[in-house]
Specification:
The chain is mainly alpha-helical. The protein has 17 helices and no strands. 77% of the residues lie in helices and 0% in strands.
């Protein structure tokens, strides 16, 4: 049970920590100054939402997200959110591919090289079906989380930063709502695809509480570090590099490789959500649907990583607020919706 719970926990974290999150760009977009309470609320909201999604997915033994979505938003809005999830997964996967190009550009590689490597790696991954994604998550994510925490704690120590000096200033607490909402929609798609593989409630609790706590702790320390370099973030497309410039080149290379894998796992999660839905309409091999999907994404990467994050993420954060409310109040909705017993 514990091993299975950790496997799903890494899938949740891998879906959430992508180019936007791991680079620091997404965190700075929503949090920044006076956000400690917002991050605490995010931990609570995120854990509850994941538990509701996984519980529905487990009960329905789902292999794609549509049955889970119907249960969350109701039959009337399912069509609207089905399209929205598809668009979200499509556009955020474009952001991940663009993030790969931006990571390569930090080392003076052509933007298109980073994009090409990402697309090739995704195709190879899906030749092994969903098991390939789960294997990569379990291997890469502990390294990424450990490396990111190490860099952030070292930066906090070297700069003599206090983690709790501004707890009396919490005016940005409302950021918890759009930030959680932004990260919930892809989890409906991804967790909806593995319902038939979840075996127990214990796995769900471990996965959801564990992922919420880990993401919350990293988010808090990361945000605290970004506040110290607020002026430099304007210059860097990837804010993490503004922190890494204080450390040796070897550290920069190591973290850049881990950042790329974070981008890769999130892109893979997005592609998984897309192709499992498309397979309902087209009986084609999984890898072929992946190839066609990635080819259609290529032109949109021209907009650039930071531009895509700054425009798309706040929009999705607001549009997904209804889903967030439905998930947080799900037990109440179900009690209201269920017919009275005679």
């Amino acid at each position: 049970m514990i091993r299975a719970g950790l496997k799903w926990m890494f899938l949740i974290i891998g879906t959430t920590i992508g180019a936007g999150y791991a680079s620091g760009r997404e965190l700075w977009q929503f949090f920044g100054h006076e956000s400690g309470l917002a991050i605490l609320l995010f931990i609570i909201f995120f854990s509850i939402c994941c538990m509701v999604i996984m519980d529905i997915s487990h009960k329905k033994e789902s292999t794609q997200y549509l049955p889970v979505l119907k249960e969350i938003v109701g039959i009337k809005l399912t069509g609207v959110y089905d399209v929205m999830i598809f668009l979200y997964l499509f556009t955020t996967t474009v952001v991940m591919i663009a993030g790969s190009g931006a990571t390569g550009r930090a080392f003076n590689f052509p933007y298109i090289w980073g994009i090409g490597i990402m697309i090739f790696a995704l195709i190879i991954l899906f030749i092994k079906d969903i098991n390939g994604l789960l294997s990569v998550n379990q291997f890469v994510l502990p390294l990424l989380l450990g490396g990111l925490l190490f860099v952030l704690i070292m930066f906090t120590y070297d700069q003599n930063l206090s983690l709790f000096s501004h707890w009396h200033e919490q005016r940005n607490w409302t950021a918890a709502f759009p930030f959680t909402a932004l990260n919930i929609l892809p989890l409906i798609a991804v967790l909806g695809a593995i319902g038939n593989k979840v075996k127990s409630k214990g796995e769900i609790v471990i996965a959801c509480v564990g992922s919420g706590l880990i993401l919350g702790i990293i988010t808090y320390i990361y945000n605290n570090s970004l506040i110290q370099i607020a002026d430099e973030i304007l210059v860097y497309e990837i804010p993490l590099f503004a922190i890494l410039k204080h450390y040796p080149l070897e550290m920069l290379i190591f973290m850049s490789i881990l950042l790329w894998f974070a981008i890769f796992t999130t892109a893979a999660s997005g592609v998984l959500g897309i192709v499992t839905r498309v397979q309902e309409f087209f009986r084609l091999p999984l890898w072929l649907i992946v190839v066609i999907t990635l080819i259609t994404m290529l032109p949109l990467t021209a907009f650039g990583f930071s531009t895509l994050v700054s425009y798309l993420y706040p929009i999705y954060g607001i549009l997904n607020l209804y889903v967030l409310v439905r998930l947080l109040l799900f037990p109440l909705w179900k009690r209201t919706d269920s017919p009275p017993t005679s």
